[in-house]
Specification:
The chain has 309 residues and is an all-alpha fold. The protein is built from 14 helices and no strands.
Length: 309
């Protein structure tokens, strides 16, 4: 393999950190909107976001109450949280800086620019909900611009393969996390299948993954748990559906040398996903299924790390 393992590792993690910053910005924005749509007696709050990001324990070390101000500060600007937006942008910038000769100059400038914007504006955005919404949208748009720039101007060689592997592994991981936590969150409050609040819940799942319009275009039905789960797990054309991300991983791994072991590991994950009918599972079984899927994704990441990094 012609690419140094250090460079491959940096590009892979650049893809992951950029995707993580964008996904975190989305779930914070969507949660704020969801809370406005729910009735006052449904107290959903901000704790589910800590569960999605798996960093509740770190949060509890530094904060007393999981209220809006604390959780948004922790997820957006707190460098003590390794998954916060600012931490992800710092890590993305550092990875990009060390491989500046591999990526287009414009992409490096965009990454540096959004990092500087996020750092300079970070204090204001927590206090004001409207400003926070604009701040997060700017981060989402910047990430999409960077992704487009890299796709359109970076040579599609081994380096680009590693970038896309990182993005798709991170995407699969985040999609499963959002489904797992969000599908469990409101169930204690919902007794009646036709309640409109179940629709709001599943709409928020789709919006967290920017999948609402694509779901409506494909399904043309009212939003139902079974259909949303089928779409987000088994659709092979929607970019944030787990099946699509795994097909992308397969494509980019196939381009790389020494990928036999990783491709075997990927087959295990794909088999798990394709054989299951998650839309038919009750909540506890759905949680078990997603838990196993996430362990397999972690195992796939470890196999790739051993092979290449």
């Amino acid at each position: 393999m012609s690419m140094l393992s250090r460079v491959a590792n940096n590009i892979y993690w650049l893809g992951r950190y950029l995707e993580r910053a964008e996904n975190t910005a989305r779930i914070v924005n969507v949660n704020a909107n969801l809370l406005l749509d729910l009735p006052k007696n449904v107290r959903l709050g901000w704790t589910p976001l800590l569960e999605i990001m798996s960093n509740k324990e770190i949060f509890n070390e530094y904060y007393d109450t999981p209220n809006e101000e604390n959780v948004t500060a922790f997820l957006i600007t707190d460098t003590r949280n390794p998954s916060s937006i600012i931490s992800s942008l710092i890590a993305a910038r550092e990875n990009a800086r060390t491989i500046r000769e591999i990526i287009p100059r414009e992409a490096w400038e965009q990454i540096n620019s959004i990092y500087l914007f996020a750092k300079e504006q970070q204090q204001e955005q927590i206090k004001n909900g409207r400003y926070r919404h604009n701040y997060l949208n700017k981060i989402i748009q910047a990430q999409q611009a960077i992704t487009g720039n890299l796709s359109g101007t970076m040579t599609h060689d081994e380096g680009y393969d590693f970038l896309c592997l990182g993005r798709n592994i991170e995407r699969a991981d985040m999609t499963t996390r959002i489904i797992d936590v969000r599908s469990a969150t409101l169930l204690p409050y919902i007794d009646n299948e036709i309640t409109p609040f179940e629709n709001i819940q599943w709409m928020s799942v789709l919006k967290s993954l920017t999948g609402y319009q694509m779901y409506r275009r494909q399904m043309r039905l009212r939003i139902k748990r079974e259909d949303v789960l089928r779409f987000l797990l088994h659709d092979d054309k929607f970019p944030r559906a787990v099946k699509h991300t795994l097909l992308q991983v397969q494509t980019f791994l196939t381009n790389l040398p020494n990928s036999e072991k990783a491709l075997q590991e990927l087959k295990v994950v794909q088999h798990q996903l394709y054989e299951a009918k998650p839309e038919t599972l009750k909540q506890d079984k759905l949680h078990e299924f997603i838990d196993e899927l996430q362990k397999s994704l972690e195992s796939l990441h470890n196999t790739m790390s051993e092979a290449y990094f």
